[in-house]
């Protein structure tokens, strides 16, 4: 693909990149804390990954190999257009293989293939503030983070148990990072939460509309909130992937006809393809 | 007076130096070699100059210790970064220390506050070497096991200050120790042991 002319490398201007880079460095030094940054208007609407794109644009170099996934798949609209955006504005190599990528930008999944040291996982985040639906005022949630006063989130999870008999939150499940900050892991299924804990890769989170960047450094403690008598647990399926037979991956339900036929397939398309073989 | 040039390739070199700093902060205590080093006027080390050129600009007040307040260094930074030079360490977003022996205590720099701990100084400390000094180990985010480090040339009482800095978490300063063309990070999240 030809590289677009008339743009700086990776689209953003250098002063914007420096500002975002400073925010990223502070985010890494204070794991789980949301660093405010001057989010820029991007050539796609808020909600399509503008935060993740700005983080990737500030981190990426010409030697990087970029993978982009949307709900685990490399071939969905959002993933294809973001991958093409960086191929055109930065001229970087792209891949669908988790193992080949140095930077993986993701919307709502962590790859099934374990990440390694040196890789960077960039999450697209719609709402960065874990307490936002419980307390709408930024001035108050900021104080709650300053005081590490997270009781209200435990009350919310308790009310789930009182109403449904179990914690009903199944995605964007709140975590405590490095025993200090309550953090929203972005709308990944809670199936993926355990992968964040002590992950060898660097995890960066960008929220464009909300203008926040936060991070989980490699080998950092990430604990999903729970109760002694209602421990955290992840989704389980009775089925295996209908394509590759995987019993250990996150499955999407696919309707196959109008008579109630359905199959379950891996959400991570690279993992599934790799298991089926070339 | 001639002015030393900045980065050979401003876009690519700035990105490479940032990635070096990111890598160092993500794995505190590991020594990261910077690949792009600008020629800098002494006593500013090339590695320190690279970090300032890559990260500082008109939005980031910079504090320099007295030995760096020469016309050559000031002219270089004004031209390449345009960053305001401030007199008080507590006003600085970045600070460069060429003589750690006489540096102000860490708590004199901006520590951020409980609501905005990110509004804190990043210190760049120039050292003779990142190895061969008294050994301590770092634990915490970024290191699966405690990592042993031994930077040379730090003032007496430095590690006690670093422990106090960690105790302030989430407030505190973050340190980038440089020597030659390499760098080692000591973020506030790292616990100093031994």
CATH H level, superfamily name of chain B: Bacterial phosphonate metabolism protein PhnH
Strand element count of chain A: 12
Radius of gyration of chain B: 16 Å
| Rg from Cα of chain A | 19 Å
The quaternary state of the protein chains shown equals: heterodimer
CATH third-level topology of chain B: Rossmann fold
- Element pattern of chain B in H and E: HEHEHEEEEHEEE
Order of helices and strands of chain A: HEHEHEEEHHEEHEEEEEH
Question: What keyword list fits this structure?
Answer:
heterodimer; A: 278 residues; alpha/beta; seven-stranded mixed sheet; three-stranded antiparallel sheet; 7 helices; 12 strands; 18% strand; globular; B: 194 residues; Rossmann fold; six-stranded mixed sheet; 4 helices; 24% helix
What does this structure look like?
Chain A is an alpha/beta fold. Chain A has helices at residues 14-29, 50-59, 77-89, 138-146, 151-164, 193-196, 269-276, and strands spanning 35-36, 65-70, 93-94, 103-107, 120-124, 175-177, 181-183, 202-207, 212-216, 222-224, 251-255, 262-266. The N and C termini of chain B lie far apart (48 Å). Chain B has helices at residues 10-26, 46-55, 71-80, 158-167; strands at residues 32-33, 62-64, 94-97, 122-126, 136-139, 147-149, 174-179, 182-186, 191-193. Classes of the chains: A alpha/beta (278), B alpha/beta (194). Chains A and B meet through helix 1, strand 1 and helix 4 of A and helix 1 of B.
What's the gist of this structure?
The complex is a heterodimer of chains A (278) and B (194). Chain A is an alpha/beta fold and 278 residues long.
